[in-house]
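[recover] target loaded
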């Protein structure tokens, strides 16, 4: 059996999101910017946004702990889009080919609900997706099995084996595998194209 629906992660699969990109503007060295996103505004802190906690509320205890970085912490929200640098090379072209072939396309993203619409509007290819399951709106994040079940329901309750799930996070791929999805651990667009060809979702361009 092969898949006939494609479910995309967004960050670093469709769009290039790297928080350090913003913080290079605030710190004099790459090492200082890297230390800030490792020790202050890090992924353990950010995942609360992905679960539905507002950025304003989540900033308060961090500012209390690191008052010297108040401006930088608040920039996470005020300059959210400055963490992005366009699309991941090659992915929009594959999405366009899939859409042209009539393949149903969906998204499943760990992303704060409060910035989802502005992010999607900034990257119009996301609107090619028929629906995007936003973790912040659902208040549950990958790799929780619950969010995959929500995605299946939003796609019309297909069997998981009918869905090719694409993500750059191995733990998210492993969670989807456990639920019976077909999966592709994203590294680059060339590898994704190979997987889509193998699934019969695309035909080779000559």
């Amino acid at each position: 059996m092969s898949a006939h629906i494609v479910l995309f992660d967004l960050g670093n699969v469709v769009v290039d999101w790297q928080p350090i990109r913003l913080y290079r503007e605030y710190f004099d060295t790459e090492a200082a910017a890297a230390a800030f996103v490792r020790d202050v505004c890090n992924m353990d802190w950010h995942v609360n946004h992905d679960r539905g906690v507002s950025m304003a509320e989540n900033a308060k205890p961090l500012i209390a702990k690191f008052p010297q970085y108040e401006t930088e912490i608040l920039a996470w929200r005020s300059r959210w889009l400055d963490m992005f640098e366009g699309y991941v090379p090659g992915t929009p072209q594959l999405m366009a080919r899939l859409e042209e072939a009539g393949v149903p396309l969906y998204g499943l993203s760990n992303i704060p609900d409060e910035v989802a619409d502005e992010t999607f509007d900034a990257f119009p290819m996301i609107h090619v997706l028929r629906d995007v399951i936003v973790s912040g709106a659902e208040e549950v994040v990958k790799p929780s099995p619950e969010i995959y079940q929500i995605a299946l329901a939003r796609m019309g309750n297909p069997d998981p084996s009918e869905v090719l799930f694409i993500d750059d996070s191995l733990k998210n791929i492993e969670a989807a595998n456990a639920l019976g999805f077909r999966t592709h651990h994203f590294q680059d667009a060339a590898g994704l194209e190979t997987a889509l060809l193998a699934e019969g979702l695309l035909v080779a361009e000559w």
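[recover] notes: The chain has two domains: 5-16+86-198, 18-83.
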